[in-house]
Amino acid sequence: MSKLTLFKNEIFSNYISISKNAMDIKVPISIITDIEIVDKKIISTPIARSFSGDYLSGYQLVIDYKINHSLKYLSNNENNNIFIAILPSLRKCSLVTLPSNSYENYENLNFNIKSFIDATNIKYINNRTILEYISLVFSIN
User: Fold this and answer.
1) What's the Cα-to-Cα distance from 116 to each of 11, 66, 107, 109, 136, rounded to whole Å?
2) What is the pLDDT of residues 72-117, one digit of tens each?
3) Fewer CB within 10 A of the end CB, N or C, for the chain?
4) Rounded to an integer, what is the distance from CA 23 to the centroid of its chain?
5) Do residues 79 and 8 make contact, with C-beta atoms less than 8 angstroms apart?
6) CA dist 140 to 18, 95, 111, 126, Å?
7) What sign has the CA pseudo-torsion 52, 54, 62, 15?
8) Are 43 and 59 in contact (CB under 8 A)?
């Protein structure tokens, strides 16, 4: 039986507002991001072509994950202090279509899933809000 390795890339953006008791943002410095895999499950799907044009093999791996992130920023006060705002976690889910010709019975396999932060970027919107961009990669084998 050959070893199966799949990759899945997820890219998304999110507006973030810091809490009312945090100091105003003068300059965002960086976003500190960590991915936590909460659960994984294999589901059966019809064997067909999806609306996006992908071939559905009959099985998909559902990856349930949480993004823990914090914002490091220069405050808008007279001392220009640097603060870290711990932001609420984001709960996300990703679907990975499994190839039909690799294994006959996916339900009995235990997948090893690793997550990697590919890139992060932040854009200043106002003194209470930023826009974050996150690109992450899942390695499945």
Assistant:
1) 12, 13, 25, 22, 6
2) 999 988 887 999 999 999 999 999 888 876 555 566 667 889 999 9
3) N
4) 27
5) no
6) 34, 12, 6, 39
7) negative
8) yes
| φ/ψ (deg, to 5) at 87 | -100, 155
Instruction: State the pTM of this model.
Output: 0.83
The dihedral formed by the CA atoms of 51, 67, 116 and 64, expressed in degrees to the nearest 10:
-50
**Residue holding tokens 């974050």?**
132
* 3-class SS of residue 98: coil
- If 0-12 CB within 10 Å is exposed, 13-18 middle and 19+ buried, where does residue 88 land? exposed
Q: What percent of the chain has pLDDT over 70?
A: 91
| Number of other CB atoms surrounding residue 27 within 10 Å | 11
